[in-house]
């Protein structure tokens, strides 16, 4: 019988010649809340629907011989073995809050480390929220102490307190947020023609006072600022400006090209990092800041425009903080990729039409954290803890993978 060492040597030698089949792959345990999805099972369908029958806005994709209920029952979907490393042996998945109709769990999920709280915002311009033009979307928070206590149940609705925050002066339709020097920094979409979109700092403790950091580009209004992140190297603030305020009838027609901006916090300089988007939306940097990821959700602009992007683009970030080498990183299979974040190993997560999808740094789909409904945004909130915002439902997930944070901003 061959020793382990000689088997390994033989495998290495065979590998040199491109023969890898000699050592069978290790069969790995699948956690109880996970299921393996065999992609070959749907490569050939008995009949393939037309775009009028099935498209990006349709109900989430259910692979052949599976059911929506089955997909929800084991919500961690393994598309590639690498996803098992992200999940670890015992990932958890809990619904922690729910509303009948009002989409208060929408975006700007952000961890406030000093009090171990998570802030998030209501959907702006949604009819069931009554927000947008006449009323701003509100900010809410939960305490992770309460949330951690229920992590082993699947449904903990009613056991976690959701508290509304009265920002003052009010942040008009906040949509994106990031940690910023021990406080929170919001990208606000603006409200009507007079309240211009802005970057606004929120004091995350009472009295929740706010200070505007930036509200124009050389005297011109932005369209409706959406998402915001901080580059871990130069600590500049990068943010996106699509025109969802117009799409949702609470901002005038766009007056400036939809693009990604960069704000130098030391000098006040505002520059453009990238254009070429229909609707630049989520933005994040990889750990160490080598790459920037920007989602383009142009498929939703003036209603559904099926041949526009629903994609994640990756840029290489130069030492001087400028972007180059635009690359199509992923095209999502369910509606749009909205918020995007990396874990500490550089895997890329995006909130999409049926939960959170996860890719490795090469853009290979590893798996899904399946909610069966739109998860516009989510965030790691310390270690492997994650809050996922699903419009009328809020979720808590724990994984082996860990989030990536700029320590100086926490
Ligand atoms: C689906 O189930 C049917 C009936 O059991 C079976 O014939 C078919 O091979 C299955 N298809 C796939 C892709 O697993
Ligand atoms: C997309 O598919 C849905 C059915 O799921 C259909 O109602 C809608 O009209 C389709 N949209 C387009 C633009 O074809
Ligand atoms: C906003 O208020 C105006 C004036 O009261 C009203 O005409 C309009 O219908 C309201 N719009 C929404 C979206 O509630
Ligand atoms: C909130 O008010 C305090 C006290 O005046 C001030 O020191 C702080 O800078 C303010 N923070 C913000 C974000 O406005």
Structure description:
By secondary structure, this protein is mainly beta. It folds into two domains: 1-30, no CATH class; 34-409, TolB, C-terminal domain (Neuraminidase, 6 Propeller), CATH 2.120.10. Helix content is 8%, strand content 34%. The chain contains five helices and 28 strands. It has helices spanning 4-16, 68-73, 82-87, 144-148, 244-247; strands spanning 34-36, 76-78, 92-98, 107-112, 117-121, 139-143, 163-165, 174-180, 183-188, 198-202, 210-214, 228-230, 237-241, 259-263, 270-274, 280-285, 291-296, 300-301, 303-304, 311-317, 323-331, 340-342, 348-352, 355-359, 365-370, 377-380, 385-390, 393-398. A six-stranded mixed β-sheet has the order 1-2-25-24-23-22. It has a four-stranded antiparallel β-sheet with strand order 3-28-27-26, with no helix packed on it. It has a four-stranded antiparallel β-sheet with strand order 4-5-6-7. The longest helix has 13 residues, at 4-16. Mean pLDDT is 94; it is low at 1-21. The structure holds 2-acetamido-2-deoxy-beta-D-glucopyranose (NAG) (4 copies).
How would you briefly describe this protein structure?
This protein has 410 residues and is mainly beta.
Which helices and strands appear, and what pairs or packs with what?
Blueprint: H1 4-16, E1 34-36, H2 68-73, E2 76-78, H3 82-87, E3 92-98, E4 107-112, E5 117-121, E6 139-143, H4 144-148, E7 163-165, E8 174-180, E9 183-188, E10 198-202, E11 210-214, E12 228-230, E13 237-241, H5 244-247, E14 259-263, E15 270-274, E16 280-285, E17 291-296, E18 300-301, E19 303-304, E20 311-317, E21 323-331, E22 340-342, E23 348-352, E24 355-359, E25 365-370, E26 377-380, E27 385-390, E28 393-398
Parallel strand pairs: 1-2
Antiparallel strand pairs: 2-25, 3-28, 4-5, 5-6, 6-7, 8-9, 9-10, 10-11, 12-13, 13-14, 14-15, 16-17, 17-20, 18-19, 20-21, 22-23, 23-24, 24-25, 26-27, 27-28
One 2-acetamido-2-deoxy-beta-D-glucopyranose (NAG) binds near residues 55, 58, 304 and 306.
InterPro entries: 6-blade_b-propeller_TolB-like, Oryzine_lactonohydrolase, SGL
Organism: Lasiosphaeria hispida
Pfam families: SGL
